[in-house]
Design a protein that fits this description.
Elements lengths: L1 H28 L7 H4 L18 H18 L1 H6 L1 H4 L1 H24 L6
C-alpha cells in the first residue's frame, strides 16, 4: 500500500525535474540574438511608425471577448451530455435544462448591461 503512495510522491518530482531540465536545455541551446537597432525596433510591416505606438482599446472589446469565451466554454460542457443523453436518465436531463436556463439568464444579463453592443 505504501508503494502506491511512494509512486504518487515521486511522480510530481520527476515531472518538475523533467520540466526544469527541458527549460534549462532550451535556454542553453537557444540562438543568442544580435542586439542591433534594426532588430530592436518594433515591427510595423516594414513601415516606420508615426506618432504614438501604444493605442488604448476600449474595454467593451474585452468584455465582448470575455462573454464569448464564457459562453463558448459553457457550451462545450453540453456536448458530453448530449452524447450520453440516453444513458443518463431524467435527473441529468433536468440538470441540463437548469444549466441552460442559467446560461440564458447570464446571456440576458449581459444583453441588458450592453456587453453585447458593438459601438
Amino acid at each position: 500500500m505504501y508503494q502506491d503512495y511512494l509512486t504518487l510522491a515521486i511522480y510530481p518530482l520527476v515531472v518538475i525535474g523533467f520540466t526544469a531540465f527541458m527549460l534549462a536545455l532550451a535556454w542553453v541551446l537557444r540562438a543568442k540574438p544580435q542586439k542591433t537597432p534594426q532588430k530592436q525596433s518594433p515591427y510595423e510591416c516594414g513601415v516606420p511608425t508615426r506618432g504614438e505606438t501604444w493605442v488604448r482599446f476600449r474595454v467593451a472589446y474585452y468584455l465582448y471577448a470575455l462573454v464569448f469565451v464564457v459562453f463558448d466554454v459553457e457550451t462545450i460542457f453540453l456536448y458530453p451530455w448530449a452524447v450520453a443523453l440516453n444513458q443518463l436518465g431524467l435527473f441529468a436531463y433536468i440538470e441540463a435544462i437548469i444549466f441552460i436556463l442559467i446560461l440564458l439568464v447570464g446571456l440576458g444579463y449581459a444583453w441588458k448591461e450592453g456587453a453585447l453592443e458593438w459601438k
